[in-house]
Amino acid sequence: MADAGRARPGGRTARTRGAVLDATLAELVRHGYAALTVDAVAARAGVNRTTVYRRWGGREGLVAEAVEAFAAGQARVPDTGDVDEDLRRWARSIFDTLATPESAAVVRAVFGGGDSPRLRELRHRWWTVRATLAVPVVARAVERGQLPAGTDPVEVVKHVGAPLYYRLLVLNEELTAAAADLAAAVTAAAAHAGVFVREAS
Amino acid sequence: MADAGRARPGGRTARTRGAVLDATLAELVRHGYAALTVDAVAARAGVNRTTVYRRWGGREGLVAEAVEAFAAGQARVPDTGDVDEDLRRWARSIFDTLATPESAAVVRAVFGGGDSPRLRELRHRWWTVRATLAVPVVARAVERGQLPAGTDPVEVVKHVGAPLYYRLLVLNEELTAAAADLAAAVTAAAAHAGVFVREAS
User: Fold this and answer.
1) Fewer CB within 10 Å of terminal CB in chain A, N or C?
2) What b/e string do you get for A142-177 counting C-beta neighbours within 10 Å, with b at 16 or more?
3) B196·A186 Cβ contact <8 A
C-alpha cells in the first residue's frame, strides 16, 4: 500500500494518507499523545480503522509518520549562497513553525506533553528530520570556504534552534523574529570564529 | 512563622522547612506535579498538614518555594575575573544540575511533566532565580571592558543555557561537559563580536 501511495502521489491512496495524517495531528493537538487512539483518528479522517492498522501498524507508526511529515513540511531550507543569511532564514523558518498557533500546537503536543520513551523517540525523530534538512546548509558554507574547515554542521544547526525551542518550551516566552535573528547571528559569529571546529581526536 | 524561621536559621523552624521542601521535591520527582498532594508531603516530612497549609498556603506555594530554593541551591556563581572562564563555569554548573540523576529528576519533573499554566509559572520562576544569579556575571564583564558596552546580559545568559536544556529536554541527548564548554564558547565568541549589543531603539 505504501508503495502504491508513492507511485501515485495524486491518487486516492495519497489522499487517504493525507487525510489520516492530518487527522492524527488534529487528535494529537486536541487530546495529547497519551490519549490518542487509532479509532478516533480513523473516525476523524473518515476511513476504516483496518485501513490505518494495515498501513501504519497502529498508533506508534501512525504518529511517527504524521510528525515526521509535519516536521519536514514545515521546514524551508535556504540556499542563498551566504551562510549568515542562510542561518538567519533557517532560524526564521523555525520561528514560523514555533510561533504559528497551529504548528506551535503540534510542537507543544510533541515536546510539552509529558515524558515517556515513546515521546522521547518522537522528539528524536523530529530533530533527525529537521537536522537532515539543515545540515547541508552548513556543509555547503564550509565547501564554499565561508566557514572554517572542520566546522561541525550538526552542532551549528543545534545552536541555531536551541535558543528558540528553549524560549518556547522552557521559558514560555513569546517568540519574536528578533530572537530568531539573534540565535542565527550568535551561531554565525561563533562559527566564523572557529568555535565549532572539531578537535582532532 | 516565616519570620521566625529566618531569625533562627538553625532552629527547629528551619529544620522543619528543610524537611518539608525536601519532601516536596521527592514527591515531585516520584509522582509528578499533577499528582503531588500536601498530605503526601506532610507525611513524608513527618509534619502535620496544618503546618504546611499555615506556612505555605497550600500546594502551589509549597512547590514554588521548593523549586526556587532548589534552583538557587544548585547554582554556583563564578567570579574569576575572566568572562570566558566565568561563562564556561556557569555552563558547567548548569551541566552538573542537568546531568546529576537526582537534580535532573527535579528538572524533568518541572520541565518535562506536561503543560499547564501552573507548570509554566514554575518554569518561569526557575529561570528567574537562575537569571538573577547569572546576569551579574555578564554585567561585571561589561564593567571590566571585557565585553562591549551595551551587551544584553539577559540574552547572554539565555544563550549559555539554551543548548543544554535543549539537548536534555528536546533532543533527549546525554549531556556532556564538552557540550557545556561549547555552549559557553559559542556565546562568548558572539558576545566578544558584539552580537549581543542592544540596538538603540
Assistant:
1) C
2) beeebbeeebbbebbbbbbbbbbbbbbbbbbeebee
3) yes
Pick from A171, A183, A190: CB nearest B123: A171
Of B111, B123, B189, the CB nearest to A193: B189
Question: What is the C-alpha to C-alpha distance for residues A191 and B186, in angstroms, rounded to an integer?
Answer: 8
Residue A167: list chain B partners with CB under 8 A. Answer: 158, 162
- Determine whether the interchain pair B165/A166 forms a contact, defined as Cβ–Cβ distance below 8 Å: yes
Q: How far apart are CA A177 and CA B80, in angstroms?
A: 35
Residues of chain A positioned with their CB less than 8 A from the CB of B182: 155, 195-196
What distance in Å separates the CA atoms of residue B113 and residue B119, rounded to the nearest whole number? Answer: 8
pLDDT digits (tens), chain A, 201 positions: 344 434 455 788 889 999 999 999 999 999 988 899 999 999 999 999 999 999 999 999 999 999 999 999 988 899 999 999 999 999 999 999 999 988 988 998 888 767 788 888 888 889 999 999 999 999 999 999 999 999 999 999 999 999 999 998 888 888 999 999 999 999 999 999 999 998 765
